[in-house]
Amino acid sequence: MRALTLTAAMLALAACNRERAPPSTPAGVAAATTIDFADVANYAAPTLPAYFDETVAALDNNPASNPVDDRVATLGRVLFHDLRLSTNNRASCASCHQQRFGFTDPMRFSNGISTAGTTDFHAMRLGNLRYWQPGTMFWDRRAADVEAQASQPLHALVEMGWGGPAGGIDALTRKMAATAYYPDLFAWAFGNATISEPRIQQALAQFVRAMVSRDSRWDAGYARVFSPTAANRALDVDLPDFTPEENRGRHLFMADVDQGGAGCAACHRPPTFALAADARSNGLDAGETRLFKAPSLRSVGLTGPYMHDGRFATLAEVVDFYASGARDGPALDPRLRHGSEPRRLDLDAADRAALVAFLKTLDDPALTTDPRFGDPFRR
Question: Does 6 score more than 50 pLDDT?
Answer without folding.
Answer: no
